[in-house]
Amino acid sequence: MKKLFFAIICLCVSFAFVACSGSSPSGEAAKCIDYLKDKDYAAFVETINVKADTPEKEAATKQQLLEMLQGKGDKMYEKKGGIASYSLISEQIAEDGQSAKVEYEIVYGDGSKDNNSFKMVLVDGVWKQDISK
Questions:
Q1: Exposed, middle or buried, 26 (CB in 10 Å: 0-12/13-18/19+)?
Q2: What is the pLDDT of residues 43-91, one digit of tens each?
């Protein structure tokens, strides 16, 4: 009886670990905002689903995005006093489970607020930002 009980407990723990290990749109959106808050723009760019014909074009596009964030984005965040806090408002996953929308609110150091959303797509089991039109 003890062996059966122990086996059931191990099975339940295994299921819990598997269920918690996958990414979620909200979880990945929170990482994106944390990267911006920490000014880790290189990590932020890696959360974007960049579609390109070749690996070279993908790298060039990511580099352009990084330079844009380091220039204009950094100045905007500094002007507003950085990101003081944020909250995730809602998560809507499409019926096919391949795309989602995560709405959030950012509070800046100067007290101003901004409501926006991330469009997310599932790429190889990981939710990434979808910046396509």
A1: buried
A2: 999 999 998 889 999 999 999 999 999 999 889 888 999 999 999 999 9
Is the separation of the CB atoms in 33 and 106 below 8 Å? yes
Residue 106 contacts residue 114 (beta carbons within 8 Å): yes
**CA separation for the pair 83, 46 (Å, rounded):** 20
Q: State pTM to two decimals.
A: 0.78
Please count the structural domains in the chain. 1
- CATH code, 115: 3.10.450.50
Please classify residue 103 by burial: count the beta carbons closer than 10 Å to its beta carbon, then call 0-12 exposed, 13-18 middle and 19+ buried: middle
Amino acid identity for residue 66 in this structure? L
> Could you give the CA distance from residue 71 to residue 82 in angstroms, rounded to a whole number?
14
- CB distance 112 to 36 below 8 Å: no
Digit-coded pLDDT (tens) for 81-103: 999 999 999 999 999 999 999 99
